[in-house]
# Entry
Amino acid sequence: MVDMKDLVSLCKRRGIIFQSSEVYGGVGSVWDYGPVGVELKNNVKRAWWKANVYSRSDMVGLDASILMHPKTWEASGHVASFADLLVDCKKCKKRFREDKLKGKKCPECGGGLTDSRRFNLMFKTAIGSVEGQSTTIHLRPETAQGIFLNFPNVLNASRKKLPFGIAQTGKAFRNEITTGNFTFRCREFEQMEIEYFVRPEEDQKWYDYWVNERFNWYINLGIDKKNLKLRPHEKDELAHYAKSCHDIEYNFPFGWSELEGIANRTDFDLKQHALISGKELVYFDEETKKNIVPYVIEPSGGVDRAVLAFLIDSYNVEKVKSQKRTVLKLHKDLAPIKAAVFPLLRNRPEIVEMAQKIVKDLAGDRYVVYDDTASIGRLYRRQDEIGTPYCITVDVQSLDDKKVTVRDRDSMEQDRISADKLESALIEKLKEA
Ligand code: GAP
# Structure
């Protein structure tokens, strides 16, 4: 398995992930996605949206705001319960989560610890333009509440019948104390969440369905099954809103850890918001002519954690003719760049021109790049390191036979393909498993 140090270094070198505000010394547990990373991240979200919205008739999308009415977080229980118990070391002044400590001494310097204090994880900010009259609001710590508050709007607009779901991806913020492990636990991150509304008596059936569905999503996108497992929550670790929860865990280099949680949130959130807002948040059942408050099954995953797991799982180091080759064997749907085009000789204008025309023809619907900044061997290695499935080389012979060499990332086999059939060949190849 990849050493995290090697992965972090590859991510920086190849423009996948950078430390936020690095020129000022960085901000802890906040990360920026570079030119290659933004493509990977967008592809992960696109694959999730395709599987959960476009491929289903029982799901619709939403893009709710990060800033929400302050009462939202009172009703949801986050003001009262979304907190960690923290202790401080009296000697070195470092702060720790009490539940992560093994003994009663500071794990860093052995000093004595203070009594624990509650520390809410939500970031606060102020809304309003008049100083002194602004109101404190929170940056959302989960995207889910935007879905619950929009339940009546979406229901009216979409006329969906139970069971149906609302899907959303977006930023969430948590002032995490235990950080580290690269992008695993960030203070600013993205979630992919579904709130799936069901008849209360059908909750278990849909809970089991979603656990299975979400587990298979990762496998279908190339994660090795032996690196994934399901872990049911113990009663005492369930979130305040959950009746049951399964984590999908991934075998990260730092141990098995949560990739996604699937929770049965019951009717907790809709009832709480109805209670605090005084508005009805119900579904009118045409059969019984009665209002019901649906139960909610919530598959909630992190985009950044999924990206990290896909990077780790696809990372391979191979020996090719006694040389080391690092290659990301990413699923083709996730690959940031679908093809890279090189001129074998960059001092031959006809070859450069032909290569650039190929890029122009192939690009647009997919990300295709041109590169002539190194020798062919180095250009191949560079693209292997970011998981580009195909490299296309234009050589002297191409000028005569109008064919180019297409090299496969995984097998490293090469095909000669007519330049005018390249787009259809690439489309077919990108569909192959
Ligand atoms: N709405 C339910 C909810 O937010 P959660 O288990 O707290 O549940 C869901 O978060 C997912 O969001 C996690 O499984 C993880 O993938 C991601 N996530 C949570 N906190 C995170 C953090 N600090 N950094 C990166 N991802 C995080």
